[in-house]
Design goal:
Structural class: alpha+beta
Number of helices: 9
Largest sheet: 7 strands, antiparallel
Distance between the termini: 90 Å
Length: 358
C-alpha cells in the first residue's frame, strides 16, 4: 500500500512538473503566439492588465503591444453614403448572409435574431430594420452604480437591449467610462479610457456616426445619442488593418454596425466559457464584412457584453440571449445605459402599415 501511495504521489509531481514546463515554454519559448495572445488579451481589459506584468517586464509588454495592434481607418463617417433603401423583396440573395439579413421573420417587421458562430466562438446578432427605433436609455442610477441589462430592459418593456457605455468594474459599483450624449446633452461623468475609437452613436437622421471629434463638435454635426468607446472597425466601408494578432487578444465582444442600406446590426459574442472562448478583432471585422457592414465599432466587451431580446413581438417579456462571463465570475454586470428598441417601435410600425393600407 505504501508503495502504491508513493507511486501515485510521484506521478502527481511529475504531472505538475510537465505542466509547469509546458507553461514556461509557451510563455518564454521561441513561439510568440501564446505570449502575444496572453499580453494583448490582458492589456485590453479594464482591470486585469497586471497579469501581463506578472510574467513580463514593461519593456517586453511594450514590444509585444507594438508588434500587435489595430490601425483604425483615419476618417469620420460620411452620413450621405447611407441610403436607407433595404431590398426586402428580393427573389434571390447574393449570399446566405444577405438572406439572413433581408429575409424577415414572419410577423416581425422590426427586428430579427440570428445565431452566429465561427471557430471556437458563438454569439448572436440582432438585425434592426429601422435605425430610428434605436434609443439610448440610461439606468435610473446612471453614474452611481448602474443596473443589470435584463432589469433595465424589463423596466422599459424593451423588445431588444444591448450594453452601450463602458464600465470600469469595481466592488459594489461600476463607474461609467467616457462621454455619453443624449438628446443633445453631454454626459461627461465617466472616467477616460484609452481604447481607440471615439464617439459611437446616431445622428438625428439615424445614421450610425463614428467620430473622434469632441462631444460638442459631434452635436453640431448632428449627433443625437452616443457613447464613447472603440476601436472603430469599419468606416465608410474601409476596414481597420492589423499588425500581428491585432492587439486585442480573444474575448467576449459587443459591437454595433450599420449597413449602407441603413439596417443596424447588434452583435454580442460569448467568451471565456466552454464552446466559446471569444473572438479576435480581425475575425470580428471579417464577420461584419460578411454581413455588409459599412460602419462598425467595438463597444465594451468582457463581462459587460450582454444582449436581451423578446423572441417574438407577442412575447410578454424577453431574456438574455448570451451568457455574460467576466474574469473569475459569471452573470450580469451592472451597466450605466443600453441601446434599446422600445415598444413605441410597434406603435410606429402599426400606424405606418395602416397609413399604407388606406
Amino acid at each position: 500500500m505504501k508503495k502504491k501511495k508513493k507511486s501515485k504521489f510521484s506521478i502527481f509531481l511529475i504531472t505538475i512538473d510537465v505542466i509547469a514546463l509546458v507553461c514556461f515554454f509557451l510563455a518564454y519559448g521561441p513561439i510568440s503566439y501564446f505570449r502575444d495572445l496572453l499580453v494583448t488579451t490582458a492589456m485590453t481589459t479594464m482591470n486585469h492588465r497586471y497579469f501581463a506584468y506578472v510574467l513580463y517586464s514593461e519593456d517586453q509588454v511594450k514590444e509585444i503591444l507594438d508588434n500587435n495592434k489595430l490601425i483604425e481607418p483615419e476618417e469620420d463617417t460620411n452620413s450621405s453614403e447611407i441610403t436607407f433603401n433595404p431590398n426586402f423583396n428580393a427573389d434571390s440573395y447574393e449570399s446566405v448572409y444577405e438572406e439572413q439579413i433581408l429575409k424577415k421573420d414572419e410577423g416581425n417587421d422590426i427586428y430579427k435574431i440570428v445565431n452566429i458562430k465561427g471557430d471556437n466562438w458563438k454569439g448572436y446578432m440582432v438585425v434592426i430594420y429601422d435605425p430610428s427605433d434605436i434609443k439610448l436609455v440610461f439606468a435610473s442610477n446612471y453614474g452611481k452604480g448602474g443596473k443589470y441589462l435584463s432589469d433595465m430592459a424589463k423596466e422599459n418593456k424593451a423588445l431588444v437591449a444591448m450594453n452601450a457605455s463602458g464600465v470600469k468594474s469595481s466592488v459594489g459599483k461600476n463607474p461609467v467610462t467616457g462621454t455619453a450624449i443624449l438628446n443633445g446633452k453631454v454626459y461627461d461623468t465617466g472616467k477616460k479610457i484609452n481604447k481607440g475609437g471615439g464617439l459611437i452613436g446616431f445622428t438625428k437622421d439615424n445614421v450610425l456616426m463614428l467620430t473622434k471629434k469632441s462631444a460638442k463638435e459631434a452635436i453640431k454635426d448632428g449627433m443625437d445619442r452616443a457613447v464613447e468607446f472603440g476601436p472603430f472597425l469599419i468606416v465608410n466601408g474601409k476596414p481597420a488593418t492589423f499588425k500581428g494578432n491585432g492587439g486585442w487578444g480573444i474575448a467576449n465582444r459587443t459591437a454595433i454596425a450599420q449597413r449602407q442600406d441603413g439596417i443596424v446590426l447588434f452583435v454580442v459574442i460569448d467568451g471565456r466559457q466552454a464552446g466559446s472562448i471569444g473572438i479576435s478583432m480581425p475575425d470580428l471585422v471579417k464577420l461584419f464584412q460578411k454581413y455588409g457592414a459599412y460602419n462598425a465599432a467595438n463597444l465594451d466587451g468582457g463581462g459587460s457584453s450582454a444582449l436581451y431580446a423578446r423572441k417574438t413581438l407577442t412575447a410578454k417579456s424577453g431574456s438574455l440571449l448570451n451568457k455574460p462571463v467576466g474574469y473569475g465570475y459569471s452573470g450580469e454586470r451592472r451597466l450605466p445605459n443600453a441601446w434599446m428598441v422600445l415598444p413605441s417601435a410597434i406603435e410606429k410600425h402599426n400606424s405606418t402599415s395602416e397609413g399604407e393600407g388606406e
